[in-house]
Design goal:
Elements: E1 3-9, E2 12-22, E3 32-36, E4 39-43, E5 54-57, E6 62-67, H1 83-92, H2 96-102, E7 111-116, E8 120-125, E9 130-135, E10 141-144, H3 151-165, H4 173-180, E11 199-209, E12 214-220, E13 225-231
Antiparallel strand pairs: 1-2, 1-10, 2-11, 3-4, 4-5, 5-6, 6-7, 7-8, 8-9, 11-12, 12-13
Length: about 240
C-alpha cells in the first residue's frame, strides 16, 4: 500500500502494488473472493481491521490504497474507520465515483486511492479536503506513499520506473512483478524495503486485465509464497 504502478501495454492493464508495513502487523490472508452487497470482490484481507489495500471486482474494476495524501502527516490516534474498509465500500459500489463524492471522510486518516473503472482516477483525502485527478488510462503511472518517501526519493523511484519501461514495446505482467520485487540496491528506498525501524515490504499484488481474463497475482515475500487467482470476466468496464 505504499507503491503502486499502472501500466497499459498491448491492450492489457497491469496494476501492481507493494505493501509496506511494520513487522509487528499481522500478515494478510491470501486473496479470496467475497460478496459485498451484490458485488463479487477479490482481495487479500488485513486480519487486523478486515479491510484491504488492493481489491479487484468481477467487472474488472480495481481499487488500490496508499497511505497518506500529499505529505507525511502525524497520526492522531483513534480514527473513525479503517481506510481499508473505505476502499471495500468504494470498489463494491455500482457508482464508485458518486460514492467518493458523497462519502463523509472526516476522522478518516489521510490516504490516496487509485481507482480504475474503465477510466482512471487518482483520489486523495488529506484529512480536510478531497482531491480528484482524472488520468489517461492508456499511459503509464507510478505512485509512492508520502508517509514513507520524500519528494526527492519519489522522483528517484519514478525515474527507475521510467528506465524499466524505456525501449519496451510489450510488457509482461511477470516482469512488472519482478521490478516491484527488486530493492534496486537500496533497502531504505528501493521497491523492496527492509528498514532498521522495522518497516518491511510484506507482499506484491497485481491485477492483470484484458478482454479474455482477469487475474490477481499475490507474492507473499515473507513466506516466499505465490498465489494466482483467476476471476471470470463479467461485463468488463474497459
Amino acid at each position: 500500500m505504499c507503491t503502486v504502478s499502472f501500466i497499459y501495454s498491448g491492450g492489457r492493464h497491469f496494476i501492481t502494488s507493494n505493501r509496506d508495513e511494520h513487522v509487528s502487523r499481522p500478515l494478510a490472508l491470501q486473496p479470496q473472493e467475497e460478496t459485498i452487497g451484490s458485488a463479487k470482490v477479490l482481495f487479500p484481507k488485513d486480519p487486523k481491521a478486515g479491510g484491504t489495500w488492493f481489491a479487484l471486482k468481477e467487472n474488472g474494476s480495481v481499487a488500490v490504497l496508499l497511505n497518506g495524501g500529499f505529505v507525511n502527516h502525524v497520526p492522531v490516534g483513534n480514527y473513525a474507520r479503517s481506510r481499508g474498509l473505505v476502499l471495500l465500500d468504494v470498489i463494491a459500489s455500482e457508482q464508485p465515483y458518486d460514492l467518493l463524492e458523497e462519502m463523509e471522510l472526516f476522522n478518516i486518516e489521510p490516504f490516496t486511492l487509485i481507482l480504475f473503472n474503465g477510466s482512471l482516477l487518482e483520489f486523495r483525502w488529506d484529512g480536510h479536503q478531497k482531491y480528484y485527478r482524472p488520468l489517461d488510462a492508456t499511459k503509464n503511472h507510478i505512485w509512492s506513499s508520502a508517509t514513507l518517501y520524500t519528494d526527492e526519493v519519489i522522483e528517484h523511484r519514478r525515474k527507475l520506473f521510467q528506465k524499466f519501461l524505456d525501449g519496451k514495446t510489450q510488457i509482461a505482467g511477470s516482469s512488472v512483478v519482478d521490478f516491484h520485487s527488486n530493492n534496486h540496491d537500496d533497502l531504505e528506498n528501493g521497491f523492496i524495503i527492509d528498514r532498521d525501524s522495522g518497516l518491511k515490504t510484506f507482499s506484491v499484488t497485481q491485477a492483470v486485465l484484458d478482454d479474455d481474463e482477469i487475474v490477481m497475482r499475490h507474492l507473499d515475500l515473507l513466506n516466499d509464497k505465490f498465489f494466482e487467482v483467476p476471476f471470470s470476466p463479467s461485463q468488463l468496464t474497459f
